[in-house]
Design the sequence.
């Protein structure tokens, strides 16, 4: 019988990205990546056309990612907090531009490699498994300016050089790897999420890039080949480790507004939009609904001989994903999206929302639905590597924050993970996003706070950077981990 409990080897912890927390954006040899020229993913990148090529236009800009929350210098302190909570796993990313500052060098930057050696060593010393994303909105900017990024097949070799170096360097230290973070966001956030840029623009300022659907599918294909080559390489270098895909899957939990078959078909089609990379990375083929779109649109990506054999033969070991909220679709209505998922029609059956100004619908059952959907379609282990809630918070006169809403949000989602496990889903772990306040990926500011740990910093980048426990959620999550979830 399937048990309503977490396995003894369930991984408990939290997740961040290098670009949102590290800071030190030009320190020790690092150069600019795509997140260093944007005030949040929902805003256009700060780039200018100099008459011959794109250049960063950030001289007079305050971009909070440049300092992050200074994890680069505070990581020992921050990891100590996580160890106090009992974390058995912590997800972060390697900033590609720390290892290969331009991305196309033949030899890596030793100072960048040493930083991650020190970080992973400290985690292991504290009993925390590193879960490492190879690319989390951190493509070196030079690769976009000079080559167009993933619009260019040369990227596969640049990428393979990078991953070969880090796999060899951290063999035995990192057992869980993720390839491309939320790569399905390529189609809505192409510059940062997809690492692509039209290097022959029709305008001199980037608003919505001059990229066609054909461009994005071509980039997707090169990324799929790179993903397969990455799986092939890790099995060659370190066969004891595991490697997974990482997708943004909140929008996969899309309910039809009514029983009208048109609404049901609209929901299915919207789900299909989230599944391309799942099908490529987990099953190794292009699904029929994508081929139909190619045919009706009159384009097909350039697919070289051997590409599909690689994609088919080197699929991932597990599915990692983010889930924050569900959405509802009505036929004919346009869906809005942000970094947390999609917004559509109102769901009258959801009565709990996060506080203003973000007001996300809270749907824990959606997470159970998602786990079962993935299990039914792909039959792979599942790793929940992002789930959390951003709230406006400030210290009171006693330097305390009461965050009951966060505790309730996590508790209700964990209950549904238990139900999914009892349904037969193999869930590897739960990594809360993000255990320490970091710069929001979507807004580029810090006032959308997720952490169990508060960082004294404001939206202008000013503050002491001192850390404070949010005692309510910090102590509660600590007890959850101590009991292996038996107390919820």
Sequence:
């Amino acid at each position: 019988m399937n048990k309503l409990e977490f396995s003894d080897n369930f991984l408990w912890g939290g997740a961040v990205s290098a670009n949102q927390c590290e800071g030190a954006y030009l320190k020790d040899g690092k150069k600019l990546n795509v997140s260093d020229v944007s005030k949040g993913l929902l805003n256009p990148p700060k780039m200018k056309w100099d008459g011959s090529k794109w250049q960063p236009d950030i001289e007079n800009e305050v971009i909070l990612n440049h300092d992050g929350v200074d994890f680069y210098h505070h990581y020992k302190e921050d990891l100590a907090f996580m160890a106090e909570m009992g974390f058995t796993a912590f997800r972060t990313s390697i900033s590609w531009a720390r290892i290969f500052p331009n991305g196309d060098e033949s030899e890596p930057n030793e100072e960048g490699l040493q930083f991650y050696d020190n970080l992973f060593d400290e985690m292991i010393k504290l009993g925390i498994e590193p879960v490492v994303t190879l690319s989390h909105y951190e493509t070196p900017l030079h690769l976009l300016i000079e080559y167009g990024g993933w619009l260019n097949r040369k990227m596969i070799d640049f990428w393979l050089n990078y991953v070969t170096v880090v796999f060899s360097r951290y063999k035995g230290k990192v057992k869980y790897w993720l390839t491309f973070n939320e790569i399905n966001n390529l189609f809505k956030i192409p510059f940062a999420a997809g690492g692509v840029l039209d290097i022959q623009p029709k305008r001199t300022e980037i608003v919505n890039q001059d990229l066609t659907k054909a461009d994005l599918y071509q980039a997707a294909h090169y990324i799929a080949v790179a993903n397969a080559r990455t799986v092939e390489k890790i099995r060659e270098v370190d066969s004891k480790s595991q490697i997974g895909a990482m997708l943004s899957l909140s929008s996969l939990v899309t309910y039809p507004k009514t029983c009208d078959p048109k609404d049901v078909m609209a929901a299915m089609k919207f789900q299909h939009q989230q599944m391309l990379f799942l099908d490529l990375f987990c099953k190794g083929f292009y699904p029929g609904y994508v081929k139909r779109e190619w045919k009706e649109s009159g384009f097909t990506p350039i697919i070289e001989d051997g590409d599909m054999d690689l994609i088919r033969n080197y699929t991932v070991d597990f599915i990692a994903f983010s889930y924050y909220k569900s959405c509802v679709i009505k036929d004919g209505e346009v869906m809005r999206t942000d970094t947390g998922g999609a917004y559509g029609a109102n769901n009258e059956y959801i009565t709990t929302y996060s506080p203003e100004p973000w007001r996300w619908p809270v749907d824990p059952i959606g997470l159970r639905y998602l786990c079962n959907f993935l299990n039914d379609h792909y039959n792979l282990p599942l790793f929940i590597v992002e789930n959390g809630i951003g709230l406006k918070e400030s210290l009171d006169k006693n330097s305390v924050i009461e965050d009951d809403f966060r505790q309730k949000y996590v508790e209700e989602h964990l209950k549904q993970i238990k139900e999914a496990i009892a349904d037969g889903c193999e869930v590897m772990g739960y990594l809360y996003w993000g255990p320490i306040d970091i710069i929001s990926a979507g807004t580029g500011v810090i006032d959308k706070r997720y952490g169990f740990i508060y960082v004294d910093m404001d939206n202008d980048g000013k503050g002491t950077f001192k850390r404070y426990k949010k005692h309510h959620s910090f102590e509660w999550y600590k007890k959850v981990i101590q009991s292996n979830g038996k107390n919820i």
Notes: The mean pLDDT is 95.
